Write the structure tokens for this entry.
Amino acid sequence: MTHLRSPSLHHLGLRPVSLRRFGGTRPARGAFQFPHERPSLELFTRHCESLIHQHGLQELRLQGSARSMECLPDAVRIETAEGRLEARRVVLALGPSCLVWPDWAEEAARAGASVVHAFAPNFDRNSVPQEGELIVVGGGQSAIQLAMELAATRPGRVTLVARHEWRVNDFDFEPMWAESTALRRLNRFRCAKKRRQIVNRARRNGSVAPREYRAFRQMEERGEIHRKVGDAKTCRVTSDGIHLELHNDRDELRGDHVILATGFRRGPAMADWLSSGAERAGLARLPCGSPLVDPLLRWHPRLHVAGALAELEIGPTARNIFGARLAAERLSRVS
Ligand SMILES: Cc1cc2nc3c(=O)[nH]c(=O)nc-3n(C[C@H](O)[C@H](O)[C@H](O)COP(=O)(O)OP(=O)(O)OC[C@H]3O[C@@H](n4cnc5c(N)ncnc54)[C@H](O)[C@@H]3O)c2cc1C
């Protein structure tokens, strides 16, 4: 990934033009990419670092892993592996946690085949074996970027397998959701099921940006990379490698290594410690599993949510940087 998929207006600064200004009056070559001024990952990261420094955020940060939550009358208690914390207010901004591992991939990994998930904490692109045939599974932006990166040093030996034909879109949500009118319309629906439907429909999962699509097609024309459309359902592991059977393709695809870029589970997957803490505190969840929160993203007078957990209030951008900004705006109204 060299550039973000989102435009330069989506960043962590307080002013809309913060990232643009940070890039300077004469930005370095490649700092912003056409269209939508997609910022380079390098510039975006430097901007984040400068904000951390400017606002003294490093001093506010404790490193630790939450493993239980207790809602007390005047505080929320979080137990971490590193000790206990109590705070008047807690915001759950946990990000997605549950990776999508298709059944066949789990079975193949259990049988000792080389199958890894690109978002697993221990995945390292640089330790992907140089030799053999690689299969990258996934239809979205991460899959296409990873496949192209790997094919650059393994021309002709990388195949991207997607369940569907190309879905080419600038963003991974419908652009109208970056406008306040769409969100106001969503917030008017009180029915959670309806809201969930709207949010799921507006997410463009499995889509790729036009620039990456064009780059892939060029590599494909030169024979440097391959793509197959098919839903992998079964897989055989033999001494000859991994054999994927694709449902809408009569062929069997053989590879030596499989990398899943199948993303995260939809909906608000909750870790056990959070589910049980919420249950003990009697916090309401909707049929889809989302927490029932108010417009200030309050699940409990002292407990707020952001990210995927806030999806039914913040809309389909909740999982993106733009959604993090929307959540921050709501939270800033809490007195
Ligand atoms: C490859 C890739 C490219 C992307 N590109 C874009 C893009 O161009 N534009 C865009 O808008 N979005 C993009 N996104 C999405 C972007 O990552 C999210 O918008 C953003 O990271 C969401 O921030 P967050 O803080 O909600 O969640 P995260 O960044 O996922 O952070 C969650 C944090 O919670 C921590 N955590 C979880 N459980 C615990 C626990 N029990 N105890 C303590 N800490 C815990 C995690 O360790 C993590 O640090 C991209 C995502 C990926 C994977």
In short: Residues 1, 4-6, 10, 65-66, 93-95, 142, 271, 306-307, 319-322, 324 surround flavin-adenine dinucleotide (CB under 6 Å). The two ends are 39 Å apart (CA to CA). The chain has ten helices and 16 strands.
